[in-house]
């Protein structure tokens, strides 16, 4: 019978994970490291399915991996390290599998057995890593502003507009990246300042912009957006406010193809649940603006046509993924702590 270590290595290969040499923290050589992006994708896929009340098409693949990991725990030196568990969100995966509130509606015959497997693996990890396992979330929290999604960004207490309360720390924070390679539909950020840091916009405000890598970008963080009842991939965007909110510069951009970002405060069927998401290329087909005397407000109308030579928005409408939602929770906690440090508990409550 194959050992747990060789069985896990087989799962590594079958799953398309890398098996390359790495050096462990104690200086010893290990011949197994994991493709953490693949593990994270697998973990997110299962957690999404559980959120929908089902096990999903990758359940058997995921349980095969967890079963191999459990067998590997019987070895003197298990392959799975805490860093892989943390980055792959495997702690959150086993927690979701064992959560009775996330039991699938049509529970398969094998489900109870799989839950017991996840419980045993979680117990093994807790026993091996002890307090370090229980502090994984604290580790993620501490990394968030240093090397995580909020790196290079700080709170701007002079701004109160939703989604605009953050700024990059300095110009050297801007990332030197290939725009076309970096920004694929579904790319996601915590806020617009993080998007500026990565170069898709040139400021953290809800205004038409040209990123430092070039190209027009239109952030839609507030306002309303409606699907056209007749024309597919066509939407109408409406924004109320003062003249300064009317994006008058867009008059000269009619007919231009631009990137569209959507934020969670946008009233739209396409808005992400949290944060800011890049939704691909749209042509600005029409711009309109009108002042309503009775309401003493200006209103802007935009007609946007999605460029057809790109993946449909349904391909990434699940973004943010569960791991990104985890980060959003940490970000919300961090933002609250920043306000408390600045204003105190009384100021935070006000």
TrEMBL record:
- InterPro entries in the record: PUA-like_sf, SRA-YDG_sf
- This one is known as YDG domain-containing protein
Q: Which SUPFAM superfamilies match?
A: PUA domain-like
Query: Per its UniProt record, what Gene3D superfamilies does this chain match?
Result: SRA-YDG (2.30.280.10)
């Amino acid at each position: 019978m194959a050992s747990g270590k060789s069985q896990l290595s087989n799962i590594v290969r079958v799953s398309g994970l890398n098996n390359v040499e790495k050096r462990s923290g104690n200086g010893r050589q290990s011949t197994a490291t994991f493709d953490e992006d693949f593990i994270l994708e697998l973990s997110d896929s299962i957690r999404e399915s559980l959120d929908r009340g089902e096990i999903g098409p990758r359940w058997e693949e995921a349980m095969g991996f967890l079963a191999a990991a459990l067998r590997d725990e019987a070895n003197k030196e298990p392959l799975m390290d805490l860093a892989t568990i943390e980055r792959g969100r495997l702690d959150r995966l086993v927690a979701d599998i064992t959560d009775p509130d996330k039991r699938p509606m049509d529970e398969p015959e094998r489900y109870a057995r799989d839950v017991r497997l996840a419980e045993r693996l979680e117990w093994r990890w807790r026993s091996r890593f002890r307090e370090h396992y229980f502090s994984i979330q604290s580790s993620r929290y501490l990394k968030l502003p240093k090397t995580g999604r909020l790196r290079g960004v700080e709170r701007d207490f002079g701004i109160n507009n939703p989604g605009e309360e953050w700024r990059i720390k300095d110009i050297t924070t801007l990332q030197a990246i290939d725009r076309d390679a970096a920004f694929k539909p579904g790319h996601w950020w915590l806020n617009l300042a993080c998007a500026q840091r990565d170069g898709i916009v040139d400021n953290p405000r809800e205004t038409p912009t040209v990123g430092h890598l070039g190209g027009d970008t239109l952030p839609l963080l507030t306002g309303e957006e409606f699907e056209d009842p007749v024309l597919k991939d066509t939407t109408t965007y409406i924004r109320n406010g003062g003249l300064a909110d009317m994006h008058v510069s867009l008059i000269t951009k009619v007919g231009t193809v631009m990137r569209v970002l959507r934020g969670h405060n946008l009233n739209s069927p396409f808005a992400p649940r949290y944060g800011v998401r890049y939704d691909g290329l749209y042509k600005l087909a029409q711009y309109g603006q009108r002042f309503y005397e009775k309401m003493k407000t200006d209103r802007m109308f935009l007609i946007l046509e999605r460029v057809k030579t790109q993946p449909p928005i349904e391909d990434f409408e699940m973004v943010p993924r569960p791991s990104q939602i985890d980060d959003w929770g940490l970000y919300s906690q961090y933002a609250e702590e920043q306000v408390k440090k600045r204003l105190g508990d009384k100021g935070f409550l006000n």
